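Intended use. Records such as the Transposase entry shown here are meant for training and evaluating sequence-to-structure methods. They are not intended to support clinical decisions.
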Amino acid sequence: MLIGGDVQAFICRDAVDMRKSIDGLSYLVEPLLAKSPLSGNLFVFVGRDRSKVKILYWDRTGFALWYKRLSHGRFPSPATLAQRGFTLAELNAWLEGIEIPAVRPHRTVTATRVL
């Protein structure tokens, strides 16, 4: 399984029943996230107690589902991330427990020559 760098992730602001599987989650993508479940993007769903996450995506041949359950602690609140799409790097940081709005990435530099 390889996920391209141009793929975006979209997180559902509302808590989702973690008993839902691929079909149940794919039916939630359009009404809750206003995206097509077949877009190839990642769709992140968080359980009520924020200790469980499921990520749904279409990989050209079918749906795939990734599931993570924390042994201790909770994932950061998805509320601020739900307002926009985010990168795979931001998703990885969020899955590690980092609050994304508090993290400021390095400034982008447009180089014209090597020093």
